Amino acid sequence: MAEPTALNATIPASTPFVGPERLMREHGLVSLVRLGANESAFGPSPHALAAMRAAAEEVWQYGDPDAFALREALMCRHGCAFEEICIGSGIDDLMGLTVRAFLPEGGLALASRGTYPTFAYHVRGYGGHLEEVPYRSDGTPDLDALARAAARLRPRVLYLANPDNPSGAFVPPAEIERFRATLPEQTLLLLDEAYADFVPHGDLPAFAPDDGVVRTRTFSKAYGMAGARIGYAITSRRIVAAFEKVRLQYGVNRIAQAGALASLDDEDHLRAVVAETARGREEYAALARDLGIRALPSHTNFVCIDCGSVGAAEDVLRALPRRGIWIRKPAAPPLDRCVRVTVGTAAQRAAFAQGMRAVFAELPV
Question: Which CATH number is correct for 46-263, 3.40.50.1820, 3.90.1170.50, 3.40.640.10, 3.20.20.70?
Fold first, then answer.
């Protein structure tokens, strides 16, 4: 009988994400208000949909392994070189490439405790060791504590999401620059900017690609293409060359490439999504105030709502699926007293508000 590797045998079984499809099966639901994965219910640009429909006629062909046209467009958009961009099947794929290429087996990685879990999934899956630093008491990433831990532990890779997931907090460019300057020379900063499109462009860090940082972006959030699985990294030529040695050459299909390329030309759609998302965040904040709780400030397409206690947040998380509404909850303190909800359409937001009011009316005083 074939046996898994010794490394694989030591990894505990885990499911980083429980999908809404499973919840529907478990609760016997035929529909669900999907507000748990920070997908864009506003959908892709009509330009992207048209391009993807056309590309579907050619789906018998592999996608361009160089993603040449998309990389050229991104090169112009970001003012970097063609060789400083790597396309992957979402940021999750690019995280895996970073870990495979720069974290040796037994090597040390560092992140905030309770941040986006896929980074930990890759670190453990490829034989690395993850150290974690708690969030601040207000639920924001503690860059000072991360810097102290990095100076002491000298990790090979440090993961930071900005804007942060799950808190929604945003660290201004000056603080990111100061933080980078404190890191050991051997530490590669993996800067996950999945929600960067919801931040005004001028507020984002503007440093040029170099050997010390990998910045990742996605078409899953503001561009509404989560199901297509496509994202990209901006980094140095040296790091892209390292990724090229291990990446799956045909991992990004031609339909996704066509949709991503076309979506870059529809700035009106992007602006409309960002504006409606901002309105939705305000609605959630107002709802929280009406319920006597609070919403954390967010620079993303989701909001963390502080339910007041871990028990109350768990009650909400259990009760809403029975009402056909799917959200998620952060697992680690201090954010474990919160629930996290995606900004959906006006109808989805209304359904969430109705569900929250009903659940809170039933919670023990």
Answer: 3.40.640.10
